[in-house]
């Protein structure tokens, strides 16, 4: 049997037994990448399925069914546009762990022997799993390359990491394909999808909240501002545009509290700081106070307009917010808002301050909807 026929047989079985995955696989253009040294199993980039012929022919049909479903899940979860600057090999491992638990639960084919599966990772996002793997293997770069260490196929970047237009196009295409596959699967199974498949579809089609937009709206809402030519918009000056910037009504002071009890993803810190720096550059904020704390406050930094905000948390211990809010109330009565970056594993929230609070929660994708602090607004921060 040649490789094309082997793929076709497995794809047909997917269509019959698990139409959601089968329909998604139909959308993929198959490309023989046997001569590509970077692909030793399979890989997808959102539009193509690249395969290494000897690998495909070495799989039994039920194993190939699993691998094909695995590959379309890389696309459905947008792993091809979410890697950013993470190590490709370690990113692929994290993605494999995020996918394989779901497919095993849904009883899709049979996972190959080399497949990566750990119960502790089931239900976590690839970013959360990557952070755990990075913490556990910080000095080990053996999985830094492109190879598929999980043996179930990997993912290739669908576009450049910072090409937001291309990402949006790929994301829109994938959402359309997911909706079509879900409709076909429901029709084929008389509207009674297996619970695991239905949960995956619901997760994929749930609108994603743009935490950056929520963060900026929160800052804008907390600060009373006006426009002035005295302070031009710094973001547009490099482009040759001189437009009025914003000036605050009085000193606009925001407190950023960073929970140092857990391990924070460096990419999250950089993205978070970039958004705050944007507010700085536009004149939305005049002064920032950064508080680093676990159960107690350990360090405080002050920033003013013109400074570049960098977040560098150190420490680690128990978690309590009462000391942080006590310090804010005593030392910074002029604060207009507090933004708390935390994993929210805490029971001591302390007293509510006399200004708005935004909880930037990271590492809690699986149970974010169950988080209900006694005060403040929550956003799920992920990248």
From TrEMBL:
Residues 9-237 form the Putative metallopeptidase domain. Residues 135-160 are annotated as: Disordered. Residues 147-156 have a biased composition (Gly residues). Residues 135-146 have a biased composition (Acidic residues). InterPro entries: Put_metallopeptidase_dom, VWA-like_dom. Residues 254-381 form the VWA-like domain. It holds the Pfam family DUF2201_N. PANTHER family: SLL7028 PROTEIN (PTHR38730:SF1). This is Putative metal-dependent peptidase.
């Amino acid at each position: 049997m040649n490789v094309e026929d082997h793929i076709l047989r497995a794809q047909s079985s997917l269509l019959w037994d698990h139409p959601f995955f089968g329909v998604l696989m139909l959308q993929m253009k198959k490309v023989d990448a046997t001569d590509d040294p970077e692909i030793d199993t399979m890989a997808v980039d959102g539009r193509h399925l690249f395969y290494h012929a000897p690998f495909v022919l070495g799989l039994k049909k039920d194993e190939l069914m699993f691998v094909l479903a695995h590959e379309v899940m890389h696309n459905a979860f947008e792993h091809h546009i979410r890697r950013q600057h993470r190590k490709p090999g370690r990113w692929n491992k994290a993605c494999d762990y995020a996918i394989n638990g779901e497919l095993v639960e849904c009883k899709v084919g049979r996972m190959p022997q080399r497949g990566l599966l750990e119960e502790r990772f089931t239900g976590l996002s690839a970013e959360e799993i990557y952070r755990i793997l990075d913490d556990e293997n910080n000095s080990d770069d053996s999985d830094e390359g492109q190879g598929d260490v999980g043996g179930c196929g990997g993912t290739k970047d669908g576009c450049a990491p910072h090409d937001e237009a291309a990402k949006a196009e790929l994301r829109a295409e994938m959402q359309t394909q997911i909706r079509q596959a879900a409709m076909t699967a429901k029709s084929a199974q008389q509207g009674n999808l297996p619970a695991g498949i239905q949960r995956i579809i619901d997760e994929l089609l749930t609108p994603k909240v743009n935490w950056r937009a929520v963060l900026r709206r929160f800052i804008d809402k907390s600060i009373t501002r006006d426009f002035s030519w005295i302070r031009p918009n710094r973001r547009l000056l490099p482009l040759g545009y001189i437009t009025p910037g914003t000036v605050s009504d009085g000193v606009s002071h925001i407190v950023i509290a960073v929970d140092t009890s857990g391990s924070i993803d460096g990419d999250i810190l950089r993205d978070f700081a970039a958004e705050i720096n944007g507010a700085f550059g536009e004149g939305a904020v005049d002064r920032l106070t950064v508080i680093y704390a676990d159960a107690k406050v350990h360090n405080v930094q002050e920033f003013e307009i013109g400074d570049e905000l960098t977040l560098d948390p150190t420490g680690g211990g128990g978690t309590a917010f009462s000391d942080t809010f006590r310090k804010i109330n005593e030392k910074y009565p002029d604060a207009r808002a507090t933004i708390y970056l935390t994993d929210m594993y805490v029971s001591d929230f302390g007293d509510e301050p006399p200004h708005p609070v935004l909880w930037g929660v990271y590492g809690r994708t699986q149970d974010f909807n169950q988080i209900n602090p006694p005060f403040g607004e929550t956003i799920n921060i992920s990248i």
